[in-house]
Recover the amino acids of this structure.
């Protein structure tokens, strides 16, 4: 994610140069939870007893009324006997639930949908759940995190789920560790454009004035990265470096012709540094959303109102770091935002901007008593998980301190090995520490403690010899 207010201002090369000139940097899980502890920041999310393999989302949406008529089909495997199971869901009224084709009892309780199948599910069984629901989904407006989930727009809707907004428009197991593949079958009045993650599967089908398009995400995806965008869009398609690139913008705004080529350039440049691009297509969508941030939705980020080169570089970097290699819990969000922010610094240095060292040094001049240092980058707290100083900037500084300590060769080897060995998986900070120590043959525990687990200004790292 990248907020437009602070992040884009601080991210532009001009603003960084101003900084260089001396401006201050400013400032309950059910029984069995012992198997996998709940997320420390979102303990209500995620469910026990099964593993989702695939979501098939049939979404019929009418922009004029914002009415969604939907059927979600979830294919999952049971880890243990299931007399009942729970899904994360806080969307419109449920009309029917089926398990393996038979009507199932269901109950809604807060953000949970509890399903009791006619017959218990055997351990190891692969089972299918169908949930039919209808109504107008509503966004989550969180005092600390802002607006997310299903956002209705004047000409349609867009879904931006980070961190736990997917439940506003479909039932799921909203646990970062339970990735799955997706099919989106979106039906709208003919003439409306519908986009999602991944690639189109076959041509649009039109009948009785309504058109259905199908998109498929064939690689594992966490729920927070799922996305649909429905409305009036101008779509551009090309194939760049063998990779389909599909971008779109809402013509009531503008894209300055930047999004499509900037996406292709960012992917090409980052492939060279990080290794193979993890998904089967790329792209981006500019919509008039009004939430004030861009989000790295898998394979195709969404930008609110417009974008710029560095924001595209940031969201494309997340395809490796965040989308393919995903933190196991939200506490480690610096593994997303630190890497994406550091990628901006690398890009700037390579494109005539300040050097990474200059950017680091400027931020490091921030006095020890400044609030800049007063959260733990490796555990900023639920309400501060998107704190720009603590998570984005100090996350990127942590990577630079690591680079300084282990040297360029080991550091860039680490970036690539991290992306390759944990592709489509979930990780924590301990995994990064172990890999960095293995590659560099150094004890890096004290460095990680000082930079990630201390709410204070850390000492400068000792350069590699
Ligand atoms: Zn981000």
């Amino acid at each position: 994610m990248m907020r437009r207010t602070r992040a884009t201002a601080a991210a532009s090369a001009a603003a960084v140069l101003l900084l260089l000139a001396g401006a201050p940097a400013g400032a309950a899980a059910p029984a069995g939870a012992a198997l996998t502890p709940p997320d420390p920041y979102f303990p209500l999310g995620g469910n026990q007893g099964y593993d989702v393999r695939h979501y098939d989302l049939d979404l019929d949406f009418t922009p004029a009324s914002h009415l969604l008529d939907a059927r979600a089909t979830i294919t999952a495997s049971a880890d243990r006997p299931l007399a009942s199971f729970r899904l994360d869901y806080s969307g419109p009224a449920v009309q029917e639930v089926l398990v393996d084709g038979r009507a199932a009892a269901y109950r809604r309780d807060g953000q949970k949908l509890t399903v009791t199948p006619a017959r218990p599910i055997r351990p190891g069984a692969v089972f299918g759940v169908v949930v039919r629901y209808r109504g107008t989904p509503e966004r989550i407006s969180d005092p600390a995190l802002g607006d997310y989930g299903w956002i209705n727009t004047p000409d349609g809707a867009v879904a931006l789920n980070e961190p736990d907004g997917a439940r506003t428009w479909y039932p799921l197991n909203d646990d970062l560790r339970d990735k799955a593949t997706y099919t989106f079958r979106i039906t709208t009045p003919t003439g409306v454009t519908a986009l999602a993650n991944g690639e189109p599967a076959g041509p649009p089908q039109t009948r009785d004035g309504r058109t259905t398009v199908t998109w498929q995400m064939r690689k594992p995806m966490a729920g927070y990265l799922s996305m649909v965008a429905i409305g009036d869009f101008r779509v551009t398609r090309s194939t760049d470096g063998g990779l389909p690139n599909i971008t779109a913008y809402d013509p009531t705004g503008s894209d300055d012709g930047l999004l499509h080529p900037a996406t292709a350039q960012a992917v090409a440049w980052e492939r060279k540094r990080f290794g193979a691009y993890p998904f089967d297509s790329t792209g981006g969508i500019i919509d008039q959303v009004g939430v004030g941030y861009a989000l790295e939705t898998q394979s195709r980020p969404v930008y609110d109102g417009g974008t710029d080169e560095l924001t595209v570089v940031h969201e494309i970097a997340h395809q490796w770091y965040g989308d393919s290699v995903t933190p196991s819990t939200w506490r480690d969000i610096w593994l997303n935002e630190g890497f994406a922010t550091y990628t901006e610094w690398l890009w700037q240095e390579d494109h005539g901007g300040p050097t990474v060292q200059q950017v680091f040094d400027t931020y490091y001049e921030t006095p020890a008593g400044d609030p800049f240092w007063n959260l733990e980058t490796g555990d900023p707290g639920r309400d501060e998980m998107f704190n720009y100083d603590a998570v984005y900037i100090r996350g990127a500084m942590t990577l630079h301190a690591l680079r300084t300590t282990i040297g360029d060769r080991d550091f860039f080897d680490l970036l690539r090995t991290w992306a390759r060995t944990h592709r489509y998986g979930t990780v924590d900070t301990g995994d990064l520490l172990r890999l960095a120590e293995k590659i560099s043959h150094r004890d890096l525990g004290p460095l990680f403690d000082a930079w990630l687990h201390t709410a204070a200004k850390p000492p400068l790292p000792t350069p590699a010899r």
Notes: The chain is about 25% helix and 30% strand. Residues 1-2, 296, 314, 318, 336-337, 340 surround zinc ion (CB under 6 Å). The mean pLDDT is 94.
